[in-house]
Amino acid sequence: MQHVSNFLRRERNRQRTQPLLPRALNEECGVFGIIGHDGDAAPIIALGLHALQHRGQEAAGITTYHEGQFYSDKHLGLVAEHFHGEEVLSKLKGNAGIGHTRYSTTGTGGLRNVQPLYADLDRGGIAIAHNGNLTNARTLRQQLISKGSIFHTTSDSELFVQLTALSRGLTMSDKVIDAARAVEGAYALTVLTRDALIGVRDPVGIRPLVLGKLGDAHVLASESCAFDLIGAEFIRDVEPGEVVICGRDGSLTSRRLTAEVKNPRPCIFELIYFARPNSFVDGESVYEIRKRLGRVLAEESPVEADIVSPIPDSGVPSAIGFAQASGIDYEMALIRSHYSGRTFIQPDQKIREMGVARKHSANMGVVKGKRVVLVDDSLVRGTTSKKIIEMIRDAGAKEVHLRIACPPITHPDFYGIDTPSKEELMAASHTVEEMRDIIGADSLSFLSLEGLYKALGKGPRDNLRPAFTDHCFTGDYPTPLSDMANTAEKIEQLSFLREAR
Amino acid sequence: MQHVSNFLRRERNRQRTQPLLPRALNEECGVFGIIGHDGDAAPIIALGLHALQHRGQEAAGITTYHEGQFYSDKHLGLVAEHFHGEEVLSKLKGNAGIGHTRYSTTGTGGLRNVQPLYADLDRGGIAIAHNGNLTNARTLRQQLISKGSIFHTTSDSELFVQLTALSRGLTMSDKVIDAARAVEGAYALTVLTRDALIGVRDPVGIRPLVLGKLGDAHVLASESCAFDLIGAEFIRDVEPGEVVICGRDGSLTSRRLTAEVKNPRPCIFELIYFARPNSFVDGESVYEIRKRLGRVLAEESPVEADIVSPIPDSGVPSAIGFAQASGIDYEMALIRSHYSGRTFIQPDQKIREMGVARKHSANMGVVKGKRVVLVDDSLVRGTTSKKIIEMIRDAGAKEVHLRIACPPITHPDFYGIDTPSKEELMAASHTVEEMRDIIGADSLSFLSLEGLYKALGKGPRDNLRPAFTDHCFTGDYPTPLSDMANTAEKIEQLSFLREAR
Amino acid sequence: MQHVSNFLRRERNRQRTQPLLPRALNEECGVFGIIGHDGDAAPIIALGLHALQHRGQEAAGITTYHEGQFYSDKHLGLVAEHFHGEEVLSKLKGNAGIGHTRYSTTGTGGLRNVQPLYADLDRGGIAIAHNGNLTNARTLRQQLISKGSIFHTTSDSELFVQLTALSRGLTMSDKVIDAARAVEGAYALTVLTRDALIGVRDPVGIRPLVLGKLGDAHVLASESCAFDLIGAEFIRDVEPGEVVICGRDGSLTSRRLTAEVKNPRPCIFELIYFARPNSFVDGESVYEIRKRLGRVLAEESPVEADIVSPIPDSGVPSAIGFAQASGIDYEMALIRSHYSGRTFIQPDQKIREMGVARKHSANMGVVKGKRVVLVDDSLVRGTTSKKIIEMIRDAGAKEVHLRIACPPITHPDFYGIDTPSKEELMAASHTVEEMRDIIGADSLSFLSLEGLYKALGKGPRDNLRPAFTDHCFTGDYPTPLSDMANTAEKIEQLSFLREAR
Amino acid sequence: MQHVSNFLRRERNRQRTQPLLPRALNEECGVFGIIGHDGDAAPIIALGLHALQHRGQEAAGITTYHEGQFYSDKHLGLVAEHFHGEEVLSKLKGNAGIGHTRYSTTGTGGLRNVQPLYADLDRGGIAIAHNGNLTNARTLRQQLISKGSIFHTTSDSELFVQLTALSRGLTMSDKVIDAARAVEGAYALTVLTRDALIGVRDPVGIRPLVLGKLGDAHVLASESCAFDLIGAEFIRDVEPGEVVICGRDGSLTSRRLTAEVKNPRPCIFELIYFARPNSFVDGESVYEIRKRLGRVLAEESPVEADIVSPIPDSGVPSAIGFAQASGIDYEMALIRSHYSGRTFIQPDQKIREMGVARKHSANMGVVKGKRVVLVDDSLVRGTTSKKIIEMIRDAGAKEVHLRIACPPITHPDFYGIDTPSKEELMAASHTVEEMRDIIGADSLSFLSLEGLYKALGKGPRDNLRPAFTDHCFTGDYPTPLSDMANTAEKIEQLSFLREAR
């Protein structure tokens, strides 16, 4: 949700210098909502956000509603670190509420940028949680400020709140629709008012949003895995451009943001990378999709080897698929530590040069003297792969072959995925052979774009109306990029308050 | 600055149950500002706020400006607890800034309500610190919300920010003047923009504001004692209804809020109670004023006794005046602890019944067998006086006479002084004789209203154009009380977000 | 290391009520040491402890030595949460040091019980880190107190420190050997003096200890995986009953605790459960051993099924072994969350009844309509297995067969493994058929004791001189249990100081 | 109680660089104890320590006893910051207990050095709180270590615990007496066992200790002001060399440390400086004593002036005495801030050069054009006086005369008063005229030694058997200074553990 500007990128990069094995790609949010629950909403929301924790680990927030009053609590860190226990959850009163989990807290906002965002409107309060990123945020923000609006965050998500407050729409859902029509980019929203839980998905359907039921309560979530954790029933995906209004009275109303239906293009990275393996997206198991990616990859780029191993845990399903298609034994060439979460030991230069790794350890017992195929879901900067291959060789592997279950990533994202800048995307400036050389593999192959669409059952790609948002592989962005047109003027270059922390 | 509603009063009362010897009256803020300093502004502001610490102990904030960027830091607690040391202060960059120290953090806002408040306006950022309380805050707030403004605090001070943002004034000072003209009540403001430090005092001049120089820099503060601490030179009081604009270029411009000059009525409580003894108000030493109050009190209500003692530290100057006028020896019948600050031991009921006191101890060596005159600056609830007199008697005093260096307080304040509700004001419902009986003194006398004006050199009181805001003694409020007209509707009764802490 | 008394068990159980999916077995410590390093020891120790984090997650401590001064730092929580960054590590000066990571902080000690423990002796300071548990701690402690010793922890490990202080031995290693000879039970020690790093392993060799080199430095660790992380070379296991003295001058001396060599019986649970898969124990890869357990299990208890899945991550190697031996496809029927570490959302009763799980999620895409074999490394209470099987069935599995890669656990441990009491050990009071019924599996099989020894290459079991400490399966404890003889008198029943936290 | 070594002095000096106006002298402890109370002891102890807060502000601890178990809690900071509220106090169970408040936490110990100290002895637990300082601590400590004792603090007070543990005395009081007989120096102890509260005062009676009753409970405290706060009745001083044993059964037994009675010499600094004005010492009011010091000072060193003012608060009683004897008006030339406690704003060099003060402000209204006599209780380094005189002059005083109500301090203390080293004692190396010149006063006079003894009613001084411990003025130390004989060997030079904080 935060505008991807030079300033923020610098901030992020500064933070990224810490981890030795940086996370490659990060999506920036999960949203959740519930109304009409037979009991307190807050514990359910906390569990739902916990299930969506992989979508954002830096901060989480919950807002609930009870008898004329909204209650809110936000926290930096993991959901479960704060949102557990009677003491915290009992203060979030009411049987309706929304929640948000977020990746990035960089930028100038700190806790203020943590969602849900809230405003007192003329007709009562409104709280909004947003997954995605807008591409005309800067322009809109400047327009509103010139008319007297005061922004309190540096998040593009606040535009939804400000536009809703200014709307002359009669009902809350009218106001929310007015706001959504004014913006451009990617958004899946959960919105809480006194009377309803509202879900909104952008017309292109870039970010996912699913609808379910828990008893009589309606629930909304970024992914179906949140429903499994709370024992809710999956009903259906919210459609691209759809607004679902779940009334406090149990009613369900569907409205549309646009008259004509656009070509929906959900983000292909949700399938390849972000979504949990046990989620279902568009009726398909993510785990099975990834196994198919591994199978097609094995067909496209076979290799003579003794064992197939994932880079755990991201590569597990595609490695299983690769092993099954190739007939080579599946083994764990790498052991993943459970304790390498958000904090890292920062060793001095000398130790770093030892090639120390903390997230993965080579499993010498299984790789010594073997020809090893390593399978991962994607390759971004290549630094992690380089270190892992070195580790595997040090442990005695005879050959190391790297297989990536998606095409080369050549273009940055602007819709809420925290990709590095183009210069840092290894595939943007290197051939596959150059990359192989740099990371030190005996062979390196990517899944082809054709293979990708084939594995997803949507191939071959229709270049006029592609089935997915796939600009990271193709450069074919699904919306205008208004803010990016003028990179010289950024939100951060306005005189904005910097909190001295 | 917080609207004195039932909700807040309840909140405050809840907190007040803790201290055994509650603070009687509390003013709710000190403000400070500097521009053009030859060095960093933040350490100077921190020292200035420290000197104003008696005006508010619950929270403090500083906002500075440097090369297109505003920097802000806010903290619950005393100024010196947070705003010291290179690490904190060096982040507040720039040679211009404002600060605020505040009494109350109750209510629904927490740290969000701590000032300075900030907004990005069309023409750049603006930060505002406010001492005082508005009396039409509720009404204005509802009007602005209905037009699309989003409020982020529960503080009445935010109205200045919102009104400034909406103003069509060409310059920042035009905008600030537009905002000040729309409100009603008491306010002394320090305002920081990219180009200037602006000071504003309400047309009645209820709250004080003084102007000084530190080298080439202009400084503003609630009281002159802040200038002494930083070594600044006192120039003059900002006039009631005056707007002083201290430019970054060293210029000083004076404008007025109203065409005609109103009858200025500075708050008499600043002289009697709030201001530091070493401050000068309207050219007079507060210490000397209070000594005169004690002198006139000794003349009006003499008593045969062996010693005169203050209730320290508030009663010290008037007790010295009383002793000098009466010729009775000045002694310390009570020893004040230096360690009874903001945290208190909360003993169980049994201990409480022992009549335990922690702020003052009786000095048995000096009171045993003596007739004691105790002098204090004011009497609010009477609970502290009752306990102290009991203590003095237990220590062996033969007689205890209480002399109060101001008239009985019969009416609550709405301009930023945290008086208790009318029911809790002892003098609102009791005669002097009833009060004497309840607190257990051998005699009790208050300074008369006439004596008060006489000691202040402004007597007798001109009932049409009184020289001071003195409603606490007279009920004569200097402004309309719009919000109080309709006590049924309060800000807090709007559906407002409650942070779950 | 903490004496397993009723008191502590109660404390632990109280804490255990929180997690819904309790950890089944926990070992209580990892130890590490280094001397003669070409650089600061602290960052290396921190990395080594991080690699041993699976052996204890509740607290960690490091003690180093530099020019006549010992430096120590201890912290509750994970190693990486505290021991990273220049600021913390630079205070732990010197190129020699030891570290400890610990499971339990329950009991009366808090941070005081965290190791390494330290004492100033006549001949200089000594610091000790202990993995294991003593079985005559209570008796010894009472004897020493009656002679004037003052204990500062409730940990049995303090006996090593006290006995060392009282020893009349001439050298530090003499003193340490004196102390070790007086105790009974399990211990692997790393000891730091001014001149040497000393490693000690109990005569039965219950707990592991390995020796390595990092450049010219000698290193000691509980497991070889710590050497991999820091890039050290594995030299050999420290022998049961051996004392290795690594001098500051690079020398290495070996001494023995006992004249005659006892029958060494390393703890079989290290192989089955505790050690990391990438560690080598007695020259064998733990991962390969566990795969063999799975293979023999598949031979002993075959089943007709569609997929084999581990309960991740503990069951992964044996499930791979089972899948390879049986020819059934290996799949992930369960997805493990990375965010279910030490803090858990504590839902209310209603939510708990929903059967909510947070560590594992069923992978519906892969289990629907399938006959599933679940493989795990052990079964303790059975509660987790029951919930998981329920989850798999809810996700649509046709049959669920559970296979456990070790025999039924029927006896508690007293050597440092945090087993539940006998009543909570499911296999201590139920037949296999009863257990199958309770946990709701279609079939349940354990690896046989014969199969276990066979897979370990030491079979069949020599009942007179068994190759392993295997009392958890057999009740055959390798040492006397002096303290346990008199369960009525416990350390905690002495009048011991209780810190009021 | 911490040994005054070079190391610690360096540490303290380092910390002293922070405050601009350093505290001149600091005593290092208050002790308290109660047994047989009709209710919980902990809240009473907390109040008692709060009343003794002036004797030590850096840390506080409480240990109680209830049904076979001791309970302890210690905290850095003021008593009231931690020891209040049900949550904290209810964990300290029982109707008997002791407490300690302490000045210094410098040195190597941190929280470990905070008292009471505790040990499990053969016959049950014992807790000890110590006010004073031993002068043979180093020697004894080395002896005990060589016999196998393990020390856990760097405090000399731990010797009492270690010696008690090693004593072969039959009863607890026998053991405590054994321990006290082995040490040399100053000590007032409160000791808690299962059966009794024991009070011990060293044979010279350097540090004070008083006995009282609260209902049926016996209470012990460093000063009688603690009794006033809790409503207890003062019984008598504990005699020098006396051991009072207050039994759980209400009994009171008195024993003696030495057969022959020594010449008692209570510390004269308690009267002049440390004790609270409302305390009674040896039957005399401290406030009245100090007024007499001021009176004699006025007689010895009169001056023509317009006003007499204390340096508040320390100089208040002697200034009142001076004013009464001289007939000059008593005024407040300085206003003391209530908010300058333990944390200070640390301004940069430039601000420091402005001569900024934060504890005291000049009261310009009262000093302008006046001849001012400033009275203080003592003069140590002279830095504070210099700054204050400068401030008073800047505020317009015509003349400034400084009068000190005790003789020049020429020798350091070794009995628990935190005096600076000899080099920093201004009077140790300067004549009065030199001092006057440095601090910039128009005149400077000290009370003479004769005047001092006269004001105390014990004059003239008996040089063979002086009535007080007065070495700070005379160099006449009342005990051997064994440790000081060999300043080259200090406790800190042994290899002692340094906690890395």
Descriptive account of the structure:
- Four copies of one chain form a homotetramer.
- By secondary structure, the first copy, chain A, is an alpha+beta fold.
- Chain A has two domains: 6-265, Aminohydrolase, N-terminal nucleophile (Ntn) domain (Glutamine Phosphoribosylpyrophosphate, subunit 1, domain 1); 288-337 and 346-471, Rossmann fold (3-Layer(aba) Sandwich), CATH 3.40.50.2020.
- The first copy, chain A, is 30% helix and 23% strand.
- Chain A is built from 19 helices and 23 strands.
- In chain A, the strands form five sheets. In chain A, strands 3-2-4-1-10-9-11 form a seven-stranded antiparallel beta sheet. The first copy, chain A, has a six-stranded antiparallel beta sheet with strand order 5-6-7-8-12-13, covered by helices on one side.
- The first copy, chain A, is globular and about 70 Å long.
- The two termini of chain A are 22 Å apart.
- The C-D interface holds C 63, 68-73, 88, 91-92, 118-122, 124-125, 127, 145-146, 148-152, 161-162, 165-166, 194, 494-501 and D 63, 68-73, 88, 91-92, 118-122, 124-125, 127, 145-146, 148-152, 161-162, 165-166, 194, 494-501.
